[in-house]
Design brief:
This protein is α+β, with helices and mostly antiparallel strands. It has helices spanning about 5-15, 25-35, 40-50, 55-60, 80-85, 90-100, 140-150, and strands spanning about 75-80, 115-120, 130, 135. The chain binds FE2/S2 (inorganic) cluster. The site of FE2/S2 (inorganic) cluster has 12 residues, from α5.
Length: about 150
């Protein structure tokens, strides 16, 4: 992590005045700044809050919103739970893969998109579902994939 990046992380942590209970908020701030949690940032959080590194990692891996791998600017999530699967979820994943040239868990070369799949988002009735940056798109079709992705380019 460069000196500038370390300064940025320090300022995000300092905002909470060393309050250990702010751990999740701090991780959220770092995640939204970088789209992921760099290892050096996690180490810095542990050091400054005086929390064991393993506990910070524990929090970072517990919540799906956090990523320990670099993520693109936009996170595309396609549901492959049973209900979405039978309604064509795999076709939606295939279309996103084809259009963005990535496989699940991968990020496009230009760092704009990361694709991931999940097993049920809890709203099976509107499946198949695709989510981009928290925005839910139900009743997905391959044609809709093209139209929706265009809005995030
Ligand atoms: S299976 Fe996709 S939301 Fe439940």
């Amino acid at each position: 992590m460069t000196g500038k990046a370390k300064k940025k992380v320090d300022s995000l942590i300092d905002k909470y005045e060393g309050e250990r209970s702010a751990l999740i908020s701090i991780l959220q701030d770092i995640q939204s700044e970088y789209n992921w949690l760099p290892q050096e940032a996690i180490t810095e959080v542990a050091r400054k809050l005086d929390i064991p590194l393993i506990d910070v990692y524990g929090a970072a891996t517990f919540f799906r919103q956090f990523s320990l791998k670099p993520r693109g600017k936009h996170l595309v999530t396609v549901c492959l739970g049973t209900a979405c699967h039978v309604r064509g979820g795999p076709r939606i994943v295939g279309e996103v893969e084809r259009r963005l040239n990535v496989r699940p868990s991968e990020t496009t070369k230009n760092k704009r998109f990361t694709l991931e799949t999940v097993n049920c988002l809890g709203c099976c009735a509107i499946g198949p579902i695709m989510v981009i940056d928290g925005e839910y798109y139900g009743g997905m079709t391959t044609t809709k994939v093209k139209q929706i992705l265009k809005n995030y380019r």
